[in-house]
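User: My instructor asked us to take a sequence, write out its structure as tokens, and then describe one feature of it. I'm not sure where to start. Here is the sequence I was given:
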Amino acid sequence: MLQPITTPAGTFTAEVDGPDDGPPVLFLHGYPQSRHTWRAQQPALAEAGWRTVAIDQRGYSPGVRPDPADLGNYAVDRLVTDVLEVAAALGHGPERPFHLVGHDWGGAVAWLVAARHPAAVASLTVLSRPHPSAFRAAIEADADGQRHRSRHHRAFHDPDTGPLLLADGARRLRRGLTDNGVPDDAADAYLSVLGSIEAIEAALAWYRAAGTISRIEAADVVVPTLYLWGDADLSVGRAAAEGTAAHVRAPYRFVEVPGGGHFLTDDHPDLVTAELAAHLDAHRR
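Assistant: Let's start with the prediction itself. The structure tokens for your sequence are:
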């Protein structure tokens, strides 16, 4: 069910499913996706009694889309605060912890939320994006060609990138999805959110505000963590993925998905659902 969630920053578009009194699971999508990333996981978890909330994040939600020319509006500290404010609007926080799930950029934000506010997070699940310290180490050493794998981050700083991605009916943006295992109907859903110049510029502002994702710093995580990585992920190499274990000081499980690409909820949705459900059940409070 589509449900707006209003916070001090504005109103987030959200897909909400499951019983009102179910333990909460908050989902954070990455680029260039949206709340639709979690379309397979939400109904399955809702059926099992979880209260699932998938938001369109800052810039993706029209109701929380400040001027992307002011990069302070998209700084990582602001992204972390958004998560805490959404959780608070749902009645959750340190006194009533929530489970947090993130992919790609949403994964980076999820790592930061868990590292900075462990009392608020009952469990953490991240897809693709390694712990920021492991990612930085891989970039610095250029392990597995990580600098080349992350070359698109630099391209996103070019002011011509947004219009170029949307030209010819968003041909380049769509191809970046479908060439990486995203079905056409899923690409349609993502583009329904990100297919305007206002939305794409806001999404790219995340990268521009960060300077480079490899500069993001996070402490070690002390909440139970599940990390899923596909061995065919073109954006994240093995060194960064395997290096993540050193930055979790809590029960930790690393699931390597054979043949899995960057968009695991699109190319391996059933596996993601099963692993996530098992992790949540193991750490239900």
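For the description part of your assignment, you could build on this observation: The first strand starts at residue 2 and ends at 7. Try explaining in your own words what that tells you about the chain.
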